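lol ok so funny story. i was supposed to be doing the assay writeup but got distracted and ended up predicting the structure for this chain instead. priorities right. anyway since i did it might as well share w the group, maybe its usefull for someone
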Amino acid sequence: MMLKIFYLFLVVVSQLCIAQQAEKLTVEKIMRDPLWMGSSPSAPYWSSDGRYLFFSWNPENKSTDSVYYITKDSLQPRKSGFYLRQQTIAADMVVYNLSRTAYVYSREGDVYWRSVKSPTEKRITETAEIESNPSFMMGGTKIVYSRNQNLFAWDIASGSTTQLTNFQRGVAPPNEQKPATLTAQQAWLKSDQVKNMDVIRWRKEKRDSAEQARKAFPKATPLRTIYFEDKVVRNVTVSPDGKYIAYQLSRPNTTGKSTIVPNYVTESGFTEDIAGRTKVGVPFGVSESFVFDKEKDTVIALKTAQLPGITDVTDFSKDYPRKDTAQKKENNRAVNFFGPFWNNSGSGAVFEIYSADNKDRWLMLLNPASGSLKLLDRQRDEAWVGGPGIGPFNSSSNRWMNDSTYWYQSEATGYSHLYTVNVRSGVKTALTSGKFEVQQVELSFNKKNFYITTNEAHPGEKHFYRLSVNGGKMERITATTGAHQVVVSPDEKQLAILYSYSNKPWELYLQENKARAKLYQVTDKAQSPEFRSYKWIDPEVITFPASDGAKVYARLFKSVSPHSAKPAVIFVHGAGYLQNAHKWWSSYFREYMFHNMLVENGYTVLDIDYRGSAGYGRDWRTGIYRFMGGKDLDDHIDGAKYLVEKLEIDAKRIGIYGGSYGGFITLMAMFTKPGVFAAGAGLRSVTDWAHYNHGYTSNILNEPFTDSIAYRKSSPIYHAQGLKGALLMCHGMVDQNVHFQDIVRLSQRLIELKKDNWELAVYPMEDHAFVEPSSWTDEYKRIFKLFETNLKR
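and the output, tada:
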């Protein structure tokens, strides 16, 4: 029996599966065939004319995925040739004019225009430079595109091209700089010279006369040169009426020291350094925003002092009353601009502005003529602004429903919901509400409906809905329990759906864009015959009460033949802000299959969506603010309590394991909650948050030198003296995310503390996510041995 379990285990960790016929397999066969589990399709996209639906797939078990397609006439998948892909334009790559009679797109660095009625494309550019981001302006009569950070406009009727901007690196030469303002003394001396020196007066009169003659025969105004010094130009946009150009200048932070990751096992035989990231406390830099008025030939710098609350200090600063670096009320915080996003007529534009400390998001209406900004919405969060559809990388140009109405998402109620704001009256309207999240939003082409994905039915499900732009009841389109990743066809009549369930990997389906219409299955290779022959567990999604009264969701794997020792294992998902207690096929498919193996060996397994996980609203998302390893770890302690009290698990035989953030929680559990877990496996673990990256860490813990209390509480290395139970640590030596240095520093600390109940397994050729089946096999053999040794004997 143990030999069979051993073979099953190897199948699991080699990206394969546990099969009832495992005795028929050999280790050699398993290691040769990493796709033995089956192949799920991914990344579906429609062609711009809706004739083709393309997707990535590997039903033939090749070394890499290939592109397949189906058509309206045939749902039989066929492999796409290079020429078909080359000549087909993806629907999400085209930009239509207002009447939807024509569209533009870029391909291989050139810009093309095409009429909807004609299949013939017209090539607008053919240069060695890269042209991109085409769109329409001037009522659809011109096409604007970017080249080398500058904008150009192509006139459809005449075929002529006009350069709209002239950005140049460096500083303006002296003769192009603004003339200095004369002091009273200098002005008097100049006037006196002209009055008393005949030659000076005559020369001045001659120059003035020539200038008057030149003005009588004006030439075309030269294009203004805008010098951006050593900064970076980004987000250059032109108003649809062509009057204004908005742009941002940012200066990357070059003061921070970058890390290196030594690569020991190399083809050259020498140790080679991999350039790494900076550590938390080195911001990415901030931006300034400007508007260039083409008619007046003036540039206006937008002032951040216009932002309400720009000088607000953070709540945590009260914990450091004597600190020299404490924030001061009069200081404007650094911000980053995104946009502006222009309405169709060019009469309005909205900036989405985020403070560098990520405590604020402002939606501001721009008056381009004056550079003034009017507040439409401010979202303030003393933890950090975030949630589905919210954040710098969720900004979208398709936010205008008409020239006066802008839509956005906000966690104002504690859950991300859909709102509109009238930019003229300032009136805001909530289109959705309730204790669920709006996770994706798309405005229909006719701007009469929204297509949205929410978890209203259950936190662990994703369904697709249609909602009128006027609000009202959401019409649910999908019906099957699980998750639906939907791509709408260009004519909005068909839906391409990637669907999965808890124990069924993703497959591709088609459905009419009607409520609960029939699903037509396109692919059926996600499960090989051997994989399908095994009865995979459909884990129960349960809830249990946390010690603070919150309701915690988890997936429960129960054994039909529990071991007499009554052992259990708690799995901790990574990423922090991620959901795993759901009813669809998990991205942790290896761990899911490992849990099936543990159940076969008599374990009970609990997989918890702890505080900080995605899918449960703002309070859950920010529950780890300033204390990672606080409420998130408490949820696992309460999970262990649930196992003991409700499922009669032996309290002395509970293990815990996880990778990345899961590894961090495992370390905190073994260091700060002595006796709760008999064994723990921390994989690719963060051991000291001061050594992680800025973008993730600073949101949650602020910065080490401004909020050292948060880092001291949250970093395992400061709590290593509390280690109880058996600890296994596994780490890739070329991990470019959580650096190998993390685990080396912690190992040194454990040595200094004279701890001997731990071991470290290193993987010389693995990054954060392992890729070699041999590495996965070794790692999970060690985890299984850890639990077998400490939870059963």
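The chain is about 20% helix and 30% strand. Residues 198-216 form the longest helix (19 residues).
back to the writeup now i swear
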